[in-house]
Amino acid sequence: MKILCVSDYIDPLIYSTQAKKNFPDIDLILCAGDLPMDYIDFIVSVFNKPTCFVFGNHDLKEFKYYHKEHFSPSETAGNALSALTSQNFKQKASEHTHHHGAVYLGFKALSLKQFKVNHPKRKKSTPLLICGASGSRNYNGGLCQYTESQMKAHLIKMIPHLIYNKIRYGRYLDIFLTHATPLGFHDMDDPCHKGFACFNWFLKKFKPAYMVHGHIHLYDQRAERTGLYEETKVINAYAHHIFEIDFQNDFNGGQ
């Protein structure tokens, strides 16, 4: 299974009429944030493959359509005009949920049943198990920025689904898609690019085979793009990166 990861940069190799020729045999596309939705639209249209995305801390024009808590006060006020505005806004939000042809994974856990994982320790195939987390650390109070405790609270809300995965499929999770990084792993020292300690906890507890993140730009070809944290292969998706899943060796975590 071949997976194309993208984040943070409109890559001319992908934003091209030759994209499908440049990257043949792609099965799944993961967008790790800070990408315009028009770019994600293009990716979905050209590759015509299942695509999942999370938001970063930039390119947030449509963030409110996926997070109802970010309605403006005028849209939630009690008078008839603003109630009508709110109704129209919710209708537009519903349209955007499916408008781009990509699945939003912000603080959601999903079973991608179109992919069959033939786990070496299971007698039957199971879906690909994936979840995601949008945003970065809070550094200036902007949209899609979270404190450590806020991010951990979002992760905790996904635990019931992960426990269900463990009971039904024998593992919690296969892929964790985020924008930010774990603390002290692929991150930087400044307040914006510092990682989340709760991601470290999450990886230790639920042992996904892969974590795909963005947020950290790679300007040096020698910079580390992939690394191993506990039992999880952590991948920086900046610009683009392709990896292949080895079902026989990659899904032993969480057993």
Can you describe this structure?
The protein is α/β, with parallel strands linked by helices and 255 residues long. Helices cover 31% and strands 23% of the residues. The chain has 9 helices and 13 strands. The chain has a 6-stranded mixed sheet with strand order 5-6-9-10-12-11. It has a 5-stranded mixed sheet with strand order 4-3-2-1-13, covered by helices on one side. It has a two-stranded parallel sheet with strand order 7-8. The longest helix is centred in the middle third of the chain and has 20 residues. The radius of gyration is 18 Å and the shape is globular. It starts with a strand and ends in a 5-residue tail after the last helix. 36% of the residues are buried. About 9% of the residues have low confidence.
